Amino acid sequence: FDANVEWAGKIVKIDPAETVKGGAIYYKTTVFFDKEDKRIRSGMTANIWVKTASKENALYIPLNAIKEKRGKEPTDSRLYPYVEVLEGNQIKEKEVQTGMKGENGMIEIISGLNEGEQIILSTKKK
């Protein structure tokens, strides 16, 4: 098949035991395709892309923009995510609530940041 050929379907079974061939790990998977295609046969292998979830109108930023800090109380050992934003010519910290990790190193921001705000990805330490 051409490398750009795609089929849509639903994974109905993934065997829990892996098979190792040439250093690669494989899982026997059963897929029901949305449309029948006589070229697809039992026992074939394929590389698959699995869409686990999606959201419309979600705000995503690069994962490396997220930093963590401990709570303000001495007894609070939790780590809180925050981003650095540019406000005027000042860098300010804004606590955020994160959601799903997306493709290509992106993460959803549920709250704490608005579309259009300028985030700092890295800063030079003096």
Architecture blueprint of SSEs:
Layout: E1 9-21, E2 24-33, E3 59-62, E4 67-70, E5 79-87, E6 90-95, E7 97-101, E8 106-111, E9 119-120
Antiparallel strand pairs: 1-2, 3-8, 4-5, 5-6, 5-9, 7-8
Regions with little confidence, pLDDT below 50 for 5+ residues: none
What is the chain-wise order of helices and strands? EEEEEEEEE
Helix content: under 10%
Task: Provide the CATH architecture of the largest domain.
Answer: Beta Barrel
Identify the CATH class of the largest domain: Mainly Beta
Could you tell me the CATH topology label of the largest domain.
conserved putative lor/sdh protein from methanococcus maripaludis s2 fold
The rounded Rg comes to: 22 Å
Most strands sheet:
4 strands, antiparallel
Structural class: mainly beta
* Envelope shape: elongated
Portion of residues in beta strands equals over 45%
Number of domains: 2
Task: Tell me what the structure shows.
- It is a single chain.
- Strands 4, 5, 6 and 9 form a four-stranded antiparallel beta sheet that branches. Strands 3-8-7 form a three-stranded antiparallel beta sheet, with no helix packed on it. Strands 1-2 form a two-stranded antiparallel ribbon.
- The protein has two domains: about 1-50, no CATH class; about 60-120, conserved putative lor/sdh protein from methanococcus maripaludis s2 fold (Beta Barrel), CATH 2.40.420.
- A hairpin with an 8-residue loop joins strand 4 (about 65-70) and strand 5.
- The protein contains no helices and nine strands.
- The protein has strands at about 10-20, 25-35, 60, 65-70, 80-85, 90-95, 95-100, 105-110, 120.
- The chain is mainly beta and about 130 residues long.
- It is about 0% helix and about 45% strand.
